[in-house]
## 1
Amino acid sequence: MTKKTEELASEIRQVRQEQRQSQASGSVQSGYSITINLLTDLVGCVLIGLSLGIFFQRVFNTSPVLTAGLTLLGGVAGLWTVIRQAIRLQKKR
Protein backbone atom coordinates (compact mmCIF):
# COMPACT_ATOMS: atom_id res chain seq x y z
CA MET A 1 0.00 0.00 0.00
CA THR A 2 1.13 3.46 -0.70
CA LYS A 3 1.42 6.16 1.87
CA LYS A 4 -1.73 7.88 0.60
CA THR A 5 -3.87 4.71 0.88
CA GLU A 6 -2.55 4.02 4.35
CA GLU A 7 -3.57 7.53 5.43
CA LEU A 8 -7.04 7.06 3.94
CA ALA A 9 -7.44 3.68 5.63
CA SER A 10 -6.40 5.23 8.94
CA GLU A 11 -8.92 8.06 8.53
CA ILE A 12 -11.68 5.61 7.65
CA ARG A 13 -10.94 3.54 10.77
CA GLN A 14 -10.99 6.68 12.90
CA VAL A 15 -14.33 7.86 11.49
CA ARG A 16 -15.88 4.42 11.97
CA GLN A 17 -14.68 4.30 15.57
CA GLU A 18 -16.14 7.76 16.25
CA GLN A 19 -19.46 6.68 14.73
CA ARG A 20 -19.59 3.58 16.94
CA GLN A 21 -18.87 5.67 20.03
CA SER A 22 -21.53 8.24 19.18
CA GLN A 23 -24.11 5.51 18.51
CA ALA A 24 -23.30 3.76 21.77
CA SER A 25 -23.59 6.93 23.82
CA GLY A 26 -26.79 8.00 22.06
CA SER A 27 -28.64 4.77 22.76
CA VAL A 28 -28.02 4.77 26.51
CA GLN A 29 -30.94 6.09 28.50
CA SER A 30 -30.89 6.99 32.14
CA GLY A 31 -33.30 5.37 34.54
CA TYR A 32 -35.09 8.68 34.96
CA SER A 33 -35.81 9.09 31.24
CA ILE A 34 -37.00 5.49 30.97
CA THR A 35 -39.35 6.02 33.90
CA ILE A 36 -40.74 9.23 32.41
CA ASN A 37 -41.33 7.49 29.06
CA LEU A 38 -43.14 4.58 30.69
CA LEU A 39 -45.28 6.80 32.90
CA THR A 40 -46.15 9.03 29.96
CA ASP A 41 -47.33 6.03 27.97
CA LEU A 42 -49.40 4.71 30.85
CA VAL A 43 -51.03 8.03 31.74
CA GLY A 44 -51.54 8.87 28.06
CA CYS A 45 -53.46 5.67 27.40
CA VAL A 46 -55.69 6.24 30.42
CA LEU A 47 -56.38 9.84 29.38
CA ILE A 48 -57.22 8.79 25.83
CA GLY A 49 -59.70 6.21 27.14
CA LEU A 50 -61.21 8.77 29.52
CA SER A 51 -61.54 11.46 26.86
CA LEU A 52 -63.12 9.02 24.39
CA GLY A 53 -65.58 7.97 27.09
CA ILE A 54 -66.51 11.57 27.86
CA PHE A 55 -66.80 12.34 24.16
CA PHE A 56 -69.16 9.41 23.53
CA GLN A 57 -71.12 10.24 26.65
CA ARG A 58 -71.77 13.79 25.51
CA VAL A 59 -72.31 13.13 21.80
CA PHE A 60 -74.44 9.99 22.04
CA ASN A 61 -75.88 10.68 25.51
CA THR A 62 -74.70 7.37 26.92
CA SER A 63 -74.35 6.38 30.54
CA PRO A 64 -71.16 6.92 32.56
CA VAL A 65 -70.60 3.16 32.43
CA LEU A 66 -69.15 3.54 28.92
CA THR A 67 -66.77 6.23 30.19
CA ALA A 68 -65.64 4.00 33.04
CA GLY A 69 -65.24 1.06 30.70
CA LEU A 70 -63.17 3.00 28.18
CA THR A 71 -61.03 4.41 30.98
CA LEU A 72 -60.36 0.90 32.28
CA LEU A 73 -59.65 -0.27 28.74
CA GLY A 74 -57.15 2.58 28.37
CA GLY A 75 -55.51 1.54 31.62
CA VAL A 76 -55.18 -2.03 30.43
CA ALA A 77 -53.74 -0.86 27.11
CA GLY A 78 -51.31 1.38 28.99
CA LEU A 79 -50.17 -1.45 31.24
CA TRP A 80 -49.75 -3.72 28.22
CA THR A 81 -47.59 -1.07 26.51
CA VAL A 82 -45.47 -0.55 29.62
CA ILE A 83 -44.93 -4.29 30.06
CA ARG A 84 -43.92 -4.71 26.40
CA GLN A 85 -41.45 -1.81 26.62
CA ALA A 86 -40.00 -3.11 29.88
CA ILE A 87 -39.44 -6.53 28.34
CA ARG A 88 -37.81 -4.91 25.30
CA LEU A 89 -35.52 -2.82 27.55
CA GLN A 90 -34.60 -5.90 29.57
CA LYS A 91 -33.59 -7.77 26.41
CA LYS A 92 -31.42 -4.84 25.29
CA ARG A 93 -29.41 -4.91 28.50
## 2
Amino acid sequence: MTHLPRIDPGLPLIDLHRHLDGSVRLETVLELADEQGIELPASDVAGLRPHVVVEGKASSLMDFIGRFRYLTAILHDLDACRRVAYENVEDAKNEGIDYIELRFSPWFMSETHELDPAGVVEAVADGIKAGERDTGVRAQMIGIMSRTYDTETCHRELDALLAHRDHLVAIDLAGDEVKFPAAQFKEHFSRARDAGLEVTVHAGEADGPESVWSAIRELGATRIGHGIHSLRDPDLVEYLADHRIGLEVNITSNIHTGIVDEYVNHPAREIFEKGLLANLNTDDPAISGIDLPYEYEQAARAAGLTAEMTRQSQLNALEMAFLSPEEKKELLKKNVHKYQLKGCFN
Protein backbone atom coordinates (compact mmCIF):
# COMPACT_ATOMS: atom_id res chain seq x y z
CA MET A 1 0.00 0.00 0.00
CA THR A 2 1.39 3.42 -0.96
CA HIS A 3 1.31 6.06 1.75
CA LEU A 4 1.02 9.75 1.02
CA PRO A 5 4.10 11.70 2.17
CA ARG A 6 3.66 13.43 5.51
CA ILE A 7 5.91 16.43 4.76
CA ASP A 8 4.39 19.26 2.75
CA PRO A 9 7.17 20.47 0.39
CA GLY A 10 5.42 23.82 0.06
CA LEU A 11 6.00 24.60 3.74
CA PRO A 12 9.27 25.01 5.65
CA LEU A 13 10.57 21.94 7.46
CA ILE A 14 11.49 23.07 10.97
CA ASP A 15 13.05 21.45 14.05
CA LEU A 16 12.64 23.51 17.23
CA HIS A 17 13.80 20.96 19.81
CA ARG A 18 17.15 19.40 19.01
CA HIS A 19 20.00 19.03 21.48
CA LEU A 20 23.24 19.86 19.71
CA ASP A 21 25.19 17.59 22.05
CA GLY A 22 22.69 14.80 21.36
CA SER A 23 23.29 15.11 17.64
CA VAL A 24 26.93 14.16 17.08
CA ARG A 25 27.95 11.94 14.17
CA LEU A 26 29.34 8.58 15.24
CA GLU A 27 32.05 8.98 12.60
CA THR A 28 33.10 12.22 14.28
CA VAL A 29 33.10 10.56 17.70
CA LEU A 30 35.46 7.87 16.40
CA GLU A 31 37.74 10.30 14.56
CA LEU A 32 38.17 12.75 17.42
CA ALA A 33 38.57 9.96 19.97
CA ASP A 34 41.34 8.45 17.85
CA GLU A 35 43.10 11.80 17.52
CA GLN A 36 43.08 12.37 21.29
CA GLY A 37 43.61 8.79 22.46
CA ILE A 38 40.17 8.73 24.10
CA GLU A 39 39.03 5.21 24.90
CA LEU A 40 35.73 4.06 23.41
CA PRO A 41 33.99 0.67 23.62
CA ALA A 42 34.50 0.13 19.87
CA SER A 43 36.68 1.32 17.00
CA ASP A 44 34.13 1.42 14.19
CA VAL A 45 30.60 2.72 13.67
CA ALA A 46 28.99 -0.72 13.73
CA GLY A 47 30.61 -1.53 17.05
CA LEU A 48 29.96 1.86 18.63
CA ARG A 49 26.35 2.11 17.51
CA PRO A 50 24.83 -0.23 20.18
CA HIS A 51 26.51 1.81 22.91
CA VAL A 52 25.07 5.12 21.67
CA VAL A 53 21.93 4.44 19.65
CA VAL A 54 18.80 3.14 21.34
CA GLU A 55 17.22 0.18 19.60
CA GLY A 56 13.59 -0.19 20.63
CA LYS A 57 13.74 1.34 24.09
CA ALA A 58 16.40 2.25 26.64
CA SER A 59 16.36 0.15 29.79
CA SER A 60 15.72 3.32 31.80
CA LEU A 61 15.83 7.10 31.51
CA MET A 62 19.31 7.00 33.05
CA ASP A 63 20.39 4.47 30.42
CA PHE A 64 19.26 6.93 27.74
CA ILE A 65 21.03 9.87 29.38
CA GLY A 66 24.13 7.76 29.99
CA ARG A 67 24.66 7.37 26.27
CA PHE A 68 25.56 11.06 26.04
CA ARG A 69 28.92 10.29 27.66
CA TYR A 70 30.28 8.98 24.36
CA LEU A 71 29.14 12.12 22.53
CA THR A 72 30.68 14.55 25.04
CA ALA A 73 33.84 12.53 25.66
CA ILE A 74 35.30 13.79 22.39
CA LEU A 75 34.71 17.50 23.17
CA HIS A 76 38.32 17.82 24.28
CA ASP A 77 38.79 21.39 23.06
CA LEU A 78 36.87 24.32 21.59
CA ASP A 79 37.67 23.27 18.03
CA ALA A 80 35.81 20.02 18.67
CA CYS A 81 32.80 21.97 19.94
CA ARG A 82 32.96 24.20 16.86
CA ARG A 83 33.11 21.19 14.55
CA VAL A 84 30.16 19.45 16.17
CA ALA A 85 28.08 22.63 15.89
CA TYR A 86 28.99 23.05 12.23
CA GLU A 87 28.11 19.43 11.45
CA ASN A 88 24.75 19.86 13.19
CA VAL A 89 23.84 22.48 10.60
CA GLU A 90 25.19 20.34 7.77
CA ASP A 91 23.07 17.44 8.94
CA ALA A 92 20.01 19.68 9.10
CA LYS A 93 20.64 20.60 5.46
CA ASN A 94 20.90 16.93 4.51
CA GLU A 95 17.55 16.26 6.21
CA GLY A 96 15.86 18.95 4.14
CA ILE A 97 15.43 21.25 7.15
CA ASP A 98 14.93 24.93 6.36
CA TYR A 99 15.14 26.32 9.89
CA ILE A 100 16.47 24.80 13.10
CA GLU A 101 16.94 25.87 16.71
CA LEU A 102 19.87 24.05 18.30
CA ARG A 103 20.01 23.95 22.07
CA PHE A 104 22.94 23.01 24.29
CA SER A 105 24.22 23.20 27.84
CA PRO A 106 27.69 24.78 27.88
CA TRP A 107 28.35 23.35 31.34
CA PHE A 108 27.49 19.83 30.20
CA MET A 109 29.63 20.16 27.08
CA SER A 110 32.58 21.60 29.01
CA GLU A 111 32.49 19.28 32.01
CA THR A 112 34.40 16.22 30.78
CA HIS A 113 37.54 18.12 29.72
CA GLU A 114 37.11 21.15 32.01
CA LEU A 115 36.67 23.64 29.18
CA ASP A 116 35.65 27.25 29.72
CA PRO A 117 31.81 27.27 29.43
CA ALA A 118 31.80 30.77 27.92
CA GLY A 119 34.38 29.59 25.41
CA VAL A 120 32.09 26.68 24.51
CA VAL A 121 29.25 29.13 23.80
CA GLU A 122 31.48 31.18 21.51
CA ALA A 123 32.80 28.08 19.71
CA VAL A 124 29.30 26.72 19.15
CA ALA A 125 28.19 30.10 17.82
CA ASP A 126 31.14 30.16 15.41
CA GLY A 127 30.30 26.66 14.16
CA ILE A 128 26.63 27.45 13.67
CA LYS A 129 27.34 30.71 11.84
CA ALA A 130 29.78 28.95 9.51
CA GLY A 131 27.22 26.20 8.94
CA GLU A 132 24.56 28.77 8.07
CA ARG A 133 26.90 30.47 5.62
CA ASP A 134 27.88 27.25 3.85
CA THR A 135 24.50 25.49 3.75
CA GLY A 136 21.87 28.21 3.55
CA VAL A 137 20.01 26.66 6.50
CA ARG A 138 18.77 29.24 9.00
CA ALA A 139 19.93 28.18 12.47
CA GLN A 140 19.65 29.77 15.91
CA MET A 141 20.99 28.90 19.36
CA ILE A 142 19.10 28.17 22.57
CA GLY A 143 21.18 28.08 25.74
CA ILE A 144 20.32 25.42 28.29
CA MET A 145 20.73 25.60 32.03
CA SER A 146 21.04 22.07 33.41
CA ARG A 147 18.92 22.17 36.55
CA THR A 148 20.33 18.84 37.74
CA TYR A 149 23.66 20.45 38.65
CA ASP A 150 22.14 22.90 41.21
CA THR A 151 20.90 26.47 41.28
CA GLU A 152 24.32 28.04 41.91
CA THR A 153 25.94 26.17 39.02
CA CYS A 154 23.05 27.27 36.84
CA HIS A 155 23.82 30.90 37.69
CA ARG A 156 27.39 30.30 36.52
CA GLU A 157 26.13 28.57 33.41
CA LEU A 158 23.81 31.49 32.73
CA ASP A 159 26.77 33.86 33.17
CA ALA A 160 28.58 31.96 30.41
CA LEU A 161 25.55 32.15 28.14
CA LEU A 162 24.86 35.82 28.75
CA ALA A 163 28.52 36.63 28.03
CA HIS A 164 27.55 35.85 24.43
CA ARG A 165 23.94 36.90 24.63
CA ASP A 166 23.93 38.29 21.07
CA HIS A 167 24.37 34.77 19.70
CA LEU A 168 21.34 33.39 21.58
CA VAL A 169 17.64 33.57 20.87
CA ALA A 170 16.31 31.85 24.02
CA ILE A 171 17.09 30.15 27.33
CA ASP A 172 15.90 26.66 28.30
CA LEU A 173 15.87 24.64 31.51
CA ALA A 174 16.53 20.92 31.15
CA GLY A 175 17.28 18.02 33.49
CA ASP A 176 15.40 16.44 36.37
CA GLU A 177 12.14 18.39 36.56
CA VAL A 178 10.89 16.31 39.51
CA LYS A 179 13.81 16.89 41.90
CA PHE A 180 14.56 20.42 40.69
CA PRO A 181 11.22 22.21 40.18
CA ALA A 182 10.93 25.39 38.17
CA ALA A 183 10.34 27.63 41.19
CA GLN A 184 14.00 27.20 42.18
CA PHE A 185 15.05 29.01 39.00
CA LYS A 186 12.87 32.14 39.07
CA GLU A 187 15.84 34.45 39.53
CA HIS A 188 17.73 32.82 36.65
CA PHE A 189 14.90 33.34 34.21
CA SER A 190 14.28 36.86 35.42
CA ARG A 191 17.87 37.56 34.38
CA ALA A 192 17.34 35.84 31.03
CA ARG A 193 14.15 37.76 30.27
CA ASP A 194 15.81 41.03 31.32
CA ALA A 195 18.46 40.24 28.71
CA GLY A 196 15.72 40.08 26.10
CA LEU A 197 15.81 36.32 25.58
CA GLU A 198 12.84 34.10 24.81
CA VAL A 199 11.97 31.27 27.20
CA THR A 200 11.29 27.60 26.52
CA VAL A 201 11.37 25.05 29.36
CA HIS A 202 11.47 21.26 29.55
CA ALA A 203 8.31 20.39 31.48
CA GLY A 204 5.51 17.86 31.50
CA GLU A 205 7.87 15.15 30.26
CA ALA A 206 8.70 13.11 33.35
CA ASP A 207 6.49 15.20 35.64
CA GLY A 208 2.82 16.19 35.39
CA PRO A 209 0.80 19.30 34.56
CA GLU A 210 1.99 21.25 37.60
CA SER A 211 5.48 21.27 36.12
CA VAL A 212 4.09 22.96 33.00
CA TRP A 213 2.11 25.46 35.05
CA SER A 214 5.29 26.34 36.97
CA ALA A 215 7.32 26.79 33.79
CA ILE A 216 4.71 29.26 32.56
CA ARG A 217 3.92 31.08 35.81
CA GLU A 218 7.31 31.02 37.52
CA LEU A 219 9.69 31.23 34.57
CA GLY A 220 7.68 32.96 31.85
CA ALA A 221 7.85 30.13 29.30
CA THR A 222 6.08 30.76 26.01
CA ARG A 223 7.02 27.30 24.72
CA ILE A 224 7.26 23.97 26.50
CA GLY A 225 9.72 21.20 25.71
CA HIS A 226 7.65 18.00 25.52
CA GLY A 227 4.65 18.98 27.70
CA ILE A 228 2.83 15.77 26.83
CA HIS A 229 1.39 15.32 30.35
CA SER A 230 -0.44 18.64 30.02
CA LEU A 231 -3.44 16.65 28.81
CA ARG A 232 -4.09 15.45 32.36
CA ASP A 233 -5.34 18.92 33.31
CA PRO A 234 -8.27 20.31 31.26
CA ASP A 235 -7.67 23.80 32.64
CA LEU A 236 -4.07 23.68 31.47
CA VAL A 237 -5.12 22.46 28.04
CA GLU A 238 -7.51 25.39 27.77
CA TYR A 239 -4.81 27.82 28.92
CA LEU A 240 -2.27 26.50 26.42
CA ALA A 241 -4.79 26.83 23.61
CA ASP A 242 -5.97 30.31 24.60
CA HIS A 243 -2.45 31.71 25.05
CA ARG A 244 -0.89 29.91 22.06
CA ILE A 245 1.84 28.34 24.15
CA GLY A 246 3.60 25.83 21.94
CA LEU A 247 4.44 22.23 22.79
CA GLU A 248 7.67 20.89 21.31
CA VAL A 249 6.67 17.25 20.81
CA ASN A 250 9.30 14.49 20.46
CA ILE A 251 7.52 11.20 19.76
CA THR A 252 10.42 8.77 19.30
CA SER A 253 12.41 10.26 22.16
CA ASN A 254 9.48 9.71 24.53
CA ILE A 255 9.38 6.04 23.50
CA HIS A 256 13.12 5.60 23.90
CA THR A 257 13.22 7.20 27.35
CA GLY A 258 10.25 5.11 28.51
CA ILE A 259 8.04 8.15 29.13
CA VAL A 260 5.51 6.52 26.76
CA ASP A 261 5.40 2.75 26.35
CA GLU A 262 4.36 2.42 22.69
CA TYR A 263 3.90 4.65 19.67
CA VAL A 264 0.20 3.87 19.52
CA ASN A 265 -0.21 5.20 23.08
CA HIS A 266 1.63 8.47 22.50
CA PRO A 267 -0.61 11.49 23.24
CA ALA A 268 0.56 13.41 20.13
CA ARG A 269 -2.63 12.61 18.24
CA GLU A 270 -4.80 13.91 21.07
CA ILE A 271 -2.65 17.02 21.31
CA PHE A 272 -3.36 17.82 17.66
CA GLU A 273 -7.02 16.79 17.93
CA LYS A 274 -7.47 19.34 20.70
CA GLY A 275 -6.03 22.01 18.46
CA LEU A 276 -3.05 22.80 20.66
CA LEU A 277 -0.10 24.63 19.17
CA ALA A 278 2.41 21.80 18.77
CA ASN A 279 5.05 20.57 16.36
CA LEU A 280 7.23 17.49 15.80
CA ASN A 281 10.95 17.46 16.62
CA THR A 282 13.89 15.07 17.02
CA ASP A 283 15.29 15.83 20.51
CA ASP A 284 18.49 13.71 20.43
CA PRO A 285 18.76 12.21 16.93
CA ALA A 286 22.18 10.61 17.44
CA ILE A 287 20.91 8.62 20.40
CA SER A 288 17.51 7.85 18.90
CA GLY A 289 19.04 7.03 15.51
CA ILE A 290 16.50 9.18 13.65
CA ASP A 291 16.13 12.35 11.64
CA LEU A 292 13.25 14.80 11.26
CA PRO A 293 11.78 13.11 8.14
CA TYR A 294 11.57 9.91 10.21
CA GLU A 295 9.46 11.68 12.82
CA TYR A 296 7.06 12.90 10.15
CA GLU A 297 6.95 9.81 7.95
CA GLN A 298 7.32 6.97 10.46
CA ALA A 299 6.87 8.02 14.09
CA ALA A 300 3.87 10.27 13.40
CA ARG A 301 2.18 7.54 11.40
CA ALA A 302 2.83 4.97 14.15
CA ALA A 303 1.38 7.39 16.72
CA GLY A 304 -1.81 7.75 14.66
CA LEU A 305 -1.29 11.25 13.29
CA THR A 306 -2.99 12.04 10.01
CA ALA A 307 -1.38 13.81 7.06
CA GLU A 308 -3.43 16.88 8.00
CA MET A 309 -1.89 16.81 11.48
CA THR A 310 1.67 16.59 10.23
CA ARG A 311 1.01 19.46 7.85
CA GLN A 312 -0.40 21.40 10.80
CA SER A 313 2.82 20.60 12.66
CA GLN A 314 4.77 22.38 9.93
CA LEU A 315 2.47 25.39 10.13
CA ASN A 316 2.64 25.39 13.93
CA ALA A 317 6.44 25.19 13.88
CA LEU A 318 6.57 28.36 11.81
CA GLU A 319 4.27 30.11 14.29
CA MET A 320 6.26 28.81 17.27
CA ALA A 321 9.71 29.64 15.89
CA PHE A 322 11.68 32.30 17.71
CA LEU A 323 11.75 34.50 14.62
CA SER A 324 10.31 37.92 13.91
CA PRO A 325 7.12 38.11 11.82
CA GLU A 326 9.21 39.43 8.94
CA GLU A 327 11.66 36.53 9.19
CA LYS A 328 8.79 34.04 9.22
CA LYS A 329 7.31 35.57 6.10
CA GLU A 330 10.69 35.46 4.38
CA LEU A 331 11.22 31.82 5.37
CA LEU A 332 7.82 30.88 3.99
CA LYS A 333 8.40 32.88 0.82
CA LYS A 334 11.82 31.30 0.32
CA ASN A 335 10.42 27.79 0.74
CA VAL A 336 7.51 28.37 -1.64
CA HIS A 337 9.96 29.73 -4.23
CA LYS A 338 12.24 26.70 -3.77
CA TYR A 339 9.25 24.36 -4.20
CA GLN A 340 8.13 26.14 -7.35
CA LEU A 341 11.62 25.99 -8.85
CA LYS A 342 11.87 22.30 -8.06
CA GLY A 343 8.55 21.74 -9.83
CA CYS A 344 9.89 23.43 -12.95
CA PHE A 345 12.62 20.82 -13.29
CA ASN A 346 10.47 17.74 -12.60
## 3
Amino acid sequence: MLRLINADNAEITEHKKLYRSAFPLNERFPWSMLVRKARKGRAELLTLEHDGKNAGFAYVMTSDRLAYLFFFAVQERFRGLGIGTETIKQLISRYDGKLFFLAIEPLDPTADNYQQRINRHRFYQTCGLKDVPCRVKEAKMVYSVMSTGQRVPVEDYCAMTDAFWVRRLRKLWGIELIYP
Protein backbone atom coordinates (compact mmCIF):
# COMPACT_ATOMS: atom_id res chain seq x y z
CA MET A 1 0.00 0.00 0.00
CA LEU A 2 1.26 3.46 -0.90
CA ARG A 3 0.86 6.54 1.28
CA LEU A 4 2.05 10.09 0.69
CA ILE A 5 3.25 11.59 3.97
CA ASN A 6 5.12 14.73 4.92
CA ALA A 7 8.84 13.95 4.98
CA ASP A 8 10.57 13.85 8.36
CA ASN A 9 14.25 14.75 8.91
CA ALA A 10 15.57 11.22 8.37
CA GLU A 11 13.61 10.89 5.14
CA ILE A 12 14.79 14.32 3.98
CA THR A 13 18.38 13.06 4.25
CA GLU A 14 17.49 9.99 2.15
CA HIS A 15 15.59 12.15 -0.35
CA LYS A 16 18.65 14.36 -0.79
CA LYS A 17 20.70 11.34 -1.92
CA LEU A 18 17.98 10.29 -4.35
CA TYR A 19 17.62 13.88 -5.60
CA ARG A 20 21.34 14.05 -6.39
CA SER A 21 21.37 10.70 -8.17
CA ALA A 22 18.08 11.12 -10.08
CA PHE A 23 18.50 14.66 -11.43
CA PRO A 24 21.44 16.05 -13.39
CA LEU A 25 23.27 18.97 -11.81
CA ASN A 26 21.97 21.45 -14.39
CA GLU A 27 18.36 20.61 -13.40
CA ARG A 28 18.83 20.89 -9.64
CA PHE A 29 18.24 23.78 -7.30
CA PRO A 30 19.99 23.91 -3.91
CA TRP A 31 18.47 21.14 -1.79
CA SER A 32 18.66 23.18 1.43
CA MET A 33 16.61 25.93 -0.24
CA LEU A 34 13.94 23.45 -1.37
CA VAL A 35 13.70 22.01 2.15
CA ARG A 36 13.46 25.50 3.66
CA LYS A 37 10.67 26.47 1.25
CA ALA A 38 8.75 23.30 2.15
CA ARG A 39 9.13 24.00 5.86
CA LYS A 40 7.74 27.50 5.29
CA GLY A 41 4.66 26.00 3.61
CA ARG A 42 5.45 27.17 0.07
CA ALA A 43 5.71 23.58 -1.14
CA GLU A 44 5.24 20.03 0.07
CA LEU A 45 8.05 17.52 0.35
CA LEU A 46 6.27 14.19 0.46
CA THR A 47 7.64 10.73 1.15
CA LEU A 48 6.28 7.90 -0.96
CA GLU A 49 5.79 5.30 1.76
CA HIS A 50 5.29 1.80 0.37
CA ASP A 51 4.55 -0.89 2.95
CA GLY A 52 6.24 1.23 5.62
CA LYS A 53 9.38 1.87 3.57
CA ASN A 54 10.64 5.06 1.94
CA ALA A 55 10.17 4.45 -1.79
CA GLY A 56 10.94 7.97 -3.01
CA PHE A 57 9.66 11.52 -2.87
CA ALA A 58 7.49 14.11 -4.56
CA TYR A 59 8.17 17.82 -4.24
CA VAL A 60 5.11 19.91 -5.10
CA MET A 61 4.99 23.69 -5.32
CA THR A 62 1.46 24.90 -4.55
CA SER A 63 -0.78 27.95 -4.62
CA ASP A 64 -4.51 28.49 -4.29
CA ARG A 65 -5.04 27.43 -7.90
CA LEU A 66 -2.00 25.37 -8.92
CA ALA A 67 -0.05 22.28 -7.90
CA TYR A 68 3.29 22.00 -9.73
CA LEU A 69 5.08 18.67 -9.43
CA PHE A 70 8.56 20.16 -9.33
CA PHE A 71 10.56 17.01 -8.54
CA PHE A 72 9.52 13.37 -8.41
CA ALA A 73 11.71 10.30 -7.98
CA VAL A 74 11.20 6.67 -7.05
CA GLN A 75 14.11 4.74 -5.54
CA GLU A 76 15.54 2.23 -7.97
CA ARG A 77 14.64 -0.86 -5.93
CA PHE A 78 10.96 0.20 -5.99
CA ARG A 79 10.69 0.92 -9.71
CA GLY A 80 8.44 -1.26 -11.82
CA LEU A 81 5.99 -1.92 -8.98
CA GLY A 82 3.38 0.65 -10.02
CA ILE A 83 4.45 3.11 -7.31
CA GLY A 84 5.01 5.93 -9.80
CA THR A 85 1.58 5.55 -11.36
CA GLU A 86 -0.12 5.29 -7.97
CA THR A 87 1.79 8.35 -6.73
CA ILE A 88 0.67 10.51 -9.65
CA LYS A 89 -2.94 9.38 -9.21
CA GLN A 90 -2.80 10.15 -5.48
CA LEU A 91 -1.22 13.55 -6.14
CA ILE A 92 -3.92 14.48 -8.65
CA SER A 93 -6.52 13.47 -6.08
CA ARG A 94 -4.68 15.26 -3.23
CA TYR A 95 -4.72 18.52 -5.18
CA ASP A 96 -8.27 18.15 -6.46
CA GLY A 97 -9.60 21.62 -7.24
CA LYS A 98 -6.17 22.81 -8.35
CA LEU A 99 -4.62 22.53 -11.78
CA PHE A 100 -1.96 19.82 -11.45
CA PHE A 101 0.98 20.11 -13.84
CA LEU A 102 4.63 19.30 -14.36
CA ALA A 103 7.54 20.22 -16.57
CA ILE A 104 9.17 17.46 -18.60
CA GLU A 105 12.09 17.26 -21.00
CA PRO A 106 10.85 17.99 -24.53
CA LEU A 107 10.62 15.17 -27.05
CA ASP A 108 13.74 16.12 -28.98
CA PRO A 109 14.86 13.34 -31.36
CA THR A 110 18.44 14.67 -31.22
CA ALA A 111 18.66 14.29 -27.42
CA ASP A 112 21.00 11.59 -26.09
CA ASN A 113 18.19 10.26 -23.88
CA TYR A 114 15.42 10.48 -26.47
CA GLN A 115 13.99 7.02 -25.72
CA GLN A 116 13.96 7.80 -21.98
CA ARG A 117 12.06 11.02 -22.74
CA ILE A 118 9.51 9.10 -24.81
CA ASN A 119 9.06 6.58 -21.98
CA ARG A 120 8.55 9.33 -19.37
CA HIS A 121 6.08 11.13 -21.62
CA ARG A 122 4.07 7.91 -22.14
CA PHE A 123 4.16 7.23 -18.40
CA TYR A 124 2.61 10.61 -17.59
CA GLN A 125 0.05 10.16 -20.38
CA THR A 126 -1.04 6.85 -18.87
CA CYS A 127 -1.48 8.70 -15.57
CA GLY A 128 -3.97 11.04 -17.25
CA LEU A 129 -1.77 14.05 -18.01
CA LYS A 130 -1.97 15.86 -21.34
CA ASP A 131 0.41 18.08 -23.27
CA VAL A 132 -0.10 21.82 -22.83
CA PRO A 133 1.10 24.14 -25.64
CA CYS A 134 3.61 26.06 -23.55
CA ARG A 135 7.10 25.77 -22.12
CA VAL A 136 8.61 26.30 -18.68
CA LYS A 137 12.00 28.00 -18.67
CA GLU A 138 14.15 27.46 -15.59
CA ALA A 139 17.59 29.04 -15.87
CA LYS A 140 19.05 27.62 -19.11
CA MET A 141 16.67 24.64 -19.30
CA VAL A 142 13.43 24.69 -21.30
CA TYR A 143 10.80 22.04 -20.63
CA SER A 144 7.50 20.92 -22.11
CA VAL A 145 4.42 21.05 -19.87
CA MET A 146 1.86 18.37 -19.10
CA SER A 147 -1.22 18.90 -16.96
CA THR A 148 -4.55 17.49 -15.98
CA GLY A 149 -5.82 18.95 -19.22
CA GLN A 150 -6.00 22.69 -18.92
CA ARG A 151 -3.85 25.64 -19.86
CA VAL A 152 -1.64 26.87 -17.07
CA PRO A 153 -2.53 30.56 -16.61
CA VAL A 154 0.61 32.71 -16.84
CA GLU A 155 -0.63 35.05 -14.08
CA ASP A 156 -1.20 32.14 -11.68
CA TYR A 157 2.17 30.61 -12.53
CA CYS A 158 3.97 33.93 -11.95
CA ALA A 159 2.12 34.52 -8.66
CA MET A 160 2.99 31.02 -7.44
CA THR A 161 6.65 31.20 -8.45
CA ASP A 162 7.00 34.75 -7.10
CA ALA A 163 5.69 33.56 -3.73
CA PHE A 164 8.02 30.56 -3.83
CA TRP A 165 11.25 32.07 -5.14
CA VAL A 166 10.63 35.76 -4.47
CA ARG A 167 10.10 37.75 -7.65
CA ARG A 168 13.67 39.02 -7.75
CA LEU A 169 15.11 35.47 -7.82
CA ARG A 170 12.52 34.26 -10.34
CA LYS A 171 13.59 37.06 -12.69
CA LEU A 172 17.31 36.57 -11.99
CA TRP A 173 17.11 32.83 -12.72
CA GLY A 174 14.89 33.36 -15.76
CA ILE A 175 12.04 31.23 -14.47
CA GLU A 176 8.99 31.75 -16.66
CA LEU A 177 6.06 30.14 -18.44
CA ILE A 178 6.10 30.74 -22.19
CA TYR A 179 3.21 30.35 -24.64
CA PRO A 180 3.86 30.51 -28.39
